[in-house]
Amino acid sequence: MGPLVPDIISSELNYIIALIVGIGFGFALEQAGFASTKKLVGLFYGYDFTVLRVFFTAGITAMVGVVVLNHLGLLDISIIYINPTFLWSALIGGGIMGFGFIIGGFCPGTSACAAATGRVDGMAFLLGSVIGIFAFAEGYPLWKDIYTAENWGPVLMYDQLGMSREGFGLVMILIAAGAFVATTMIENKINGKETKWFKPVIIKNSILVATPLLIVLIVIITPTKREVMDKRIDEKIAAGECNPKIMEGDKLAYELMNQYYKYNVIDVRSPEEFQKFHIPTAINIPLEEMHKSGSLGTIIQNIKTNVFYGADSMQSQRACMVSKYFGKSDNFALELTAEEFNKQYFLITDIDPHGTKQEVDIQNFRIEAGKKMKEIGEAVANMDKPVMKKATRVSGGCS
Amino acid sequence: MITEKPKKYMNPYLAGFFLGFVLLLTIYVTGRGLGASGAFKSIVIQSVETIAPTHAENTVYYADYQKSHPEGAMKSWLVFEVLGVIIGAFLSGVASNRVSLKLEKGPGVKNSTRIIGAIVGGALFGFGSQLGRGCTSGSALSGMAVMSFGGIITMLAIFGVAYMVAYFFKNLWIKKQ
User: Fold this and answer.
1) Mean residue pLDDT across chain A
2) DSSP letter for each residue of A77-125
3) Looking at the complex, does the CB of residue B147 fall below 8 Å from at least one CB of chain A?
4) Cβ of B83 and A79 within 8 Å?
5) Which residues 127-146 of B are in CB contact (within 8 Å) with A?
6) Number of folded domains that form chain A
7) Is the pLDDT of residue A360 over 50?
8) Range of A242's domain?
């Protein structure tokens, strides 16, 4: 599952990738004509809207691609870099860049392309950029307040508008298509050409616009892998086919005391609940995250026996079903909930003196087991647990 | 010597699709978008640290940057990416016969005016890109791809203001009427 950095591709190799995608980026910009200042500025005087066409097409292509990859479960959107929103600095910074665009005729990326193809004005713009950045760094205390004000974090456009990701994608495609038509008409008018719409052109362009629209619509209609999985499991539970192997508390306690290394005890509650109490040697994989590839690697294996437990028996049995859904492993659901396990082995103090011999024996065993499990838990706390990869958001942007 | 004529530019929609594909690939592989201004920032910071190390240590901005980038300013993803951009643009220019030393400017504009304009505009853009945390590539384009609110409003601000002030700078770009 993407992004491939840093788990599949190392950070060092990432620099080589940067160079390669940079070459693609530069090639595309130059081919589009972005190394020419006249072509860029044409956007603002209406004689050449190439920039808008390239820019919007690129944005829509990538946007639709992200929507599709997310839908197929190939890209984890929750960890890709989202430019954070600092309201005032975004607006004021953007405004200053707008001035820079009109006066200088480039933006930083395009000026690099212009300089690379021998444009002296591009080189001058680059020099200017460096001066501007230097001025920002030197005077930083003066605009620090504005720079850091109204920090909203990585907010998303469609959340702000109260829409779904896919719905907003559709709107953007329609806006882009409308802009393409309108700017063609404006461009022709300013260049003194007549706008003619030939039938083949209309058909061709309609197909081009319909393709991304259709793709996003298919994404909206078809369920994700996760939804398919949930549905199948729900159906099985409804049909009474949910009968995972159940492991008793005493059995688990005994096994942990004697051969804990043969068991994968998995706590499917939230990390907060896990933090408060968990069975020694247990690892935490919340139920909602079980289907992610990082977690599946731990669960789907044939060396250890999985024992799932949660806040109630529904949770542990469902976890068992999820594991069964993805692969063949030896799965058990713990008979006890986390709370019950805690009570039964760690919170008992007094032995009921009036109990039968058998009852007293069990009580003694449980107290003993509690102590032993604690010891084992402490001993293996730092060595034997699989390292759970905590996926953190990728850092990016221009800072 | 026979010099071939520069070839025509690529169809803008095709170029856009290609660019979008590169951006998507970047997001899929690295989890982040493309950028440009960040590389220039690295150059500025590295230069200051080399030329005036004591100044860099005593100035908040550089000191903060050093703390958050212990590997050094130049060992940054964007530096390598922009290096690629320069190579890619050059290769594309060579392939299409568009590499030549020249100064592009609006009709009737003096060379010195164009150069000063480019430097001033560059300085504004450089400054704005730092305040806005990214330029047209890193903030506007990449932000649009991942539907970031900050990226999209920065994009609207860049193009909105450019349109608003375009009239006042028209002598730099189009013929006087």
Assistant:
1) 88
2) GGGS--PPEEHHHHHHHHHHHHHHHHHHS--HHHHHHHHHTTBHHHHHH
3) yes
4) no
5) 127-146
6) 2
7) yes
8) 236-380
